[in-house]
Write a structure and sequence with these properties.
This protein is α/β, with parallel strands linked by helices. It has a five-stranded mixed sheet with strand order 3-2-1-4-5, with helices on both faces. Helix 1 crosses helix 2 and helix 3 packs across helix 6. Strand 1 and strand 2 form a beta hairpin. The chain is globular. It has two domains: 86 residues, Nucleotidyltransferase, domain 5 (2-Layer Sandwich); 154 residues, Nucleotidyltransferase, domain 5 (2-Layer Sandwich), CATH 3.30.420.
Length: 260
């Protein structure tokens, strides 16, 4: 089986693949100081709970937007699985799509993985929105080329900035409001309305602007850990797949020797 690792700014996701099918998935908070040994203590217990022996893991592939985390994840692979980890975008798992932007070397590996998986699952022009520490909007062409996009602060970052800068505002939990009311009667409800519905308005506005610029029929695909906050708004997205980055990693692995 393939162990795919997606190291993001907030969480690191691990998934076991049998071919292109996810058999198990786990996540842990991102901490670039965490050692390979610490990852192993946590991960090997989870594998055992799933009835998976470490010898069943035949390859490891990593995508990371946290450079300092890469070394320790590579140590995890080599020391505990006896495998040299493949790194997305390098060597035999180089991107199988055109990065049609001015600075292709700066495209995040998560965004390239998302583009790869979304193009494999959907035809035509795509807007891929990933909700995480940052919220990214990416355009993928009908031929699978990555044409660039938008980077916006994630909804949690927006709330963090508000609370940090306004001394009397409390920290609140972000959740989908119970109704469409946008006139709050308490400080907390007004904050939730502002952050949540303001964010929905941003999503709607940026999708609309991207569609006008693309000027063709577009499929909108959402992913990321926070996509669940917005998936009730059916008009926003045509598809939601929280595992898109991991699926992109599995596709890169399968394509390295022409399996798909």
């Amino acid at each position: 089986m393939l162990l795919a690792i997606d190291a993001g700014n907030t969480n690191i996701k691990f998934a076991l693949f049998d071919g292109l099918e996810i058999k198990a998935r786990w996540r842990i908070a991102t901490d670039s100081r965490r050692t390979g040994d610490e990852y192993a203590v946590w991960l090997l217990q989870l594998l055992d709970l799933e009835g998976v022996d470490r010898a069943d893991v035949t390859d490891v592939i990593i995508s990371t937007v946290v450079p300092r985390a890469l070394h320790n994840l590579q140590v995890l692979s080599s020391k505990y699985f006896g495998l040299e980890a493949l790194v997305a975008g390098r060597g035999p798992v180089s991107w199988g799509l055109e990065l049609d932007v001015d600075e292709p070397q700066n495209v995040g590996s998560d965004r390239a993985c998302n583009a790869t998986a979304a193009h494999a699952a959907h035809s035509g022009n795509l807007i891929v929105i990933s909700f995480g520490t940052a919220t990214t909007f990416d355009h993928v062409t009908p031929t699978g080329a990555y044409r660039g996009g938008i980077i916006a602060p994630g909804i949690n970052l927006s709330l963090d900035a508000l609370v940090a800068a306004a001394a009397k505002l409390p920290r609140i939990a972000i959740e989908a409001p119970a109704d469409d009311n946008v006139i709050g009667r308490t400080t907390e409800s007004q904050m939730l309305i502002g952050v949540y519905w303001g964010y929905v308005a941003m999503i709607e506005g940026l999708i609309s602007r991207m569609k006008r610029q693309i000027a063709e029929t577009v499929t909108v695909v959402a992913t990321g850990g926070l996509a669940v906050l917005f998936q009730q708004h059916a008009h926003l997205f045509d598809a939601v797949d929280g595992d898109l980055t991991l699926r992109g990693l599995a596709l890169l692995y399968a394509r390295r020797d022409g399996r798909v």
